[in-house]
Each structure stands twice: as C-alpha cells, then as structure tokens.
From TrEMBL:
GO molecular function, one term: serine O-acetyltransferase activity
GO CC annotation: cytoplasm
Protein name in the entry: Serine acetyltransferase
Catalysis performed (reactions): L-serine + acetyl-CoA = O-acetyl-L-serine + CoA
Pathway participation: Amino-acid biosynthesis; L-cysteine biosynthesis; L-cysteine from L-serine: step 1/2
Ranges where the Serine acetyltransferase N-terminal domain occurs: 14-118
Keywords from the UniProt entry: Acyltransferase, Amino-acid biosynthesis, Repeat, Transferase
EC number: 2.3.1.30
SUPFAM superfamilies on file: Trimeric LpxA-like enzymes
Signal peptide start-end: none
UniProt xrefs under Gene3D superfamilies: Hexapeptide repeat proteins, serine acetyltransferase, domain 1
Domain of life from the UniProt record: Bacteria
Length: 272
C-alpha cells in the first residue's frame, strides 16, 4: 500500500460517517445489529466492506463467497480508484436522491449503488483479460439487481442511478463523471455492429426514466435527456432533448443538471 493510500485510510470522512451512522442504526433498530455489524462495523476500511458486500450478495451455489471475496480484495487492492469512485457515488447519491438521508443507505440497501460497485470489479477483471469471470459478475449483477452493465463499459465516478431497475449499458459505452440516471435507461447499440457502437455520455448529464440512447453518439456535458426519449443523434453540451426521436427543446436549465435533478421541461399552454 502506498503512503497516499495509507493516508486515505487514516483520514476517511466518508467511511467515518458510515460507521457512525451504522452505530446509530443499531441503536434505533437492534434487530439489524448482526447484519450491520457484519457488513460495516466489522471492517476497518471501506475497501474491506465493499469486498464483503460484493461477495455476500453475488455468492451462489455456482460461486462461493470465499472465492468472490478474494477476487474483490484483489481488485480493490490493485486499483484504489474503485473505492475512490465508490466514495464519490455515495456522496452523489446522498446529495441527489431525496430518499437518501444517510451515507449508510447506499452501502446497505440501494441496489443501484451495489450494482455499480460490483460492475467496477467486473470491469477490473475485464481489463485483466479475465473475461469469462467478468461475464459471470455481469450475469449475477443482472440476476440480482436488474442492472445489466457490460464489463467493457467505462463508468466514471460520482454516479447516481435512482431505483436502478432495468438499466442496460453496452460494451463500448462510456459514462462520464457526475452522471445521474433513472430506471429503465438504455445505453445501447442500433444493430449488430461489433465495433465502437455505444453512446458516450459526458460529465454532469441527467438521463430521465425510460430514455434510450442508441448508437455511437456523444451526449455533451451537462445536458438533460427527458424521460421516455429515444436519442439517435449527438446532443450538444448544456441542452435539453426530448421526444421520439429526441430533438433539442431548450437549454439544460441549470449549470449542473445531474446534481439539481430537475426533470421538468417547460411546455407552452395551447392557444384557445
């Protein structure tokens, strides 16, 4: 472990807050004491807690918790950026999701957060050339959480996926930093191409529920995609698109759509 990594472990406000909230949760709901202690308080670092949660959730008769824990420990040790991104995801979820009032909640209960963290480990396996094992992780995440993220996709940090049901992210998709998306979003291809065929989502983009972004197109930073839209062409930065197929309907409405989470689009009243 490098000196910088030791410093992060020694001064880790995100993890400190999670452990404090865990102790409060046990006080308020003692029946959860065993679960919270084994998942959070038993571990000295967030890396170890993430590895434990990954193994505990994905384990099955096909793959033991012990094997999965070893894989997760290896990934988190080899690539400290995985846990750094997890911290950013926790803060993003707390700041953007009105249903989240503690850092503890994503770690314990939010399937969008758990799916992203598991997919990061699958992505690490993919980059190591361990593709069959990474496909196993993808399969289990899809089975457990209803989120299908190809291990070849590149996902930034500060990601918030609200509700997270029926999310699909294709192999060559790129998702920038500080992106927010709601349930039933697809970042997919348009056919049977086998090259670079999936969307590139810029930093700070907000993608509404049920939106489909298809093909090797670029969604400019700090843009908004309205719920239910089908996006087939590039989207300029700081704009709002809506419709099937999606068209530009205005500016993004604010400097940071993914943070503000404002999904309302002004509609002019019909003439009477």
């Amino acid at each position: 472990m490098t000196l910088a990594n030791r410093h992060v472990h020694a001064i880790d406000p995100v993890w400190d807050r999670i452990t404090e909230e865990a102790q409060n949760a046990i006080r308020d709901e003692p029946v959860l004491a065993g679960l919270i202690h084994s998942s959070i308080l038993h571990h000295p670092t967030i890396e170890m807690a993430l590895a434990y949660r990954f193994a505990q959730k994905l384990a099955s008769g096909e793959m033991s918790e012990q094997i999965l824990r070893g894989l997760a420990d290896e990934a988190l040790t080899s690539d400290p950026a995985i846990a750094t991104a997890a911290r950013a995801d926790i803060v993003a979820t707390f700041e953007r999701d009105p249903a989240c009032d503690r850092f503890l909640q994503p770690m314990m209960f939010f399937k969008g957060f758990k799916a992203i963290q598991a997919s990061r480990i699958g992505s690490w396996l993919w980059r190591q050339g361990r593709k069959d094992l990474s496909y196993f992780v993808q399969m289990r995440v899809s089975e457990l959480f209803g989120v299908d993220i190809h291990p070849g996709a590149r996902i930034g940090r500060g990601i918030m996926i609200d509700h997270a049901h029926s999310i699909v992210i294709g192999e060559t998709a790129v998702v920038g930093d500080n992106v927010s998306m709601l349930h039933s979003v697809t970042l997919g291809g348009t056919g049977k191409e086998d090259d670079d065929r999936h969307p590139k989502i810029g930093d700070g983009v907000l993608i509404g529920a049920g939106a489909k972004v298809l093909g090797n197109i670029t969604i400019g930073q700090c843009s908004r995609i309205a719920a239910g839209s089908v996006v087939l062409e590039d989207v300029p930065p700081k704009t709002t698109v809506a419709g099937v197929p999606a068209r530009i309907v205005g500016e993004a409405g604010c400097a940071h759509p993914s943070v503000m989470m404002d999904q309302l689009i002004g509609i002019r009243a019909p003439d009477v």
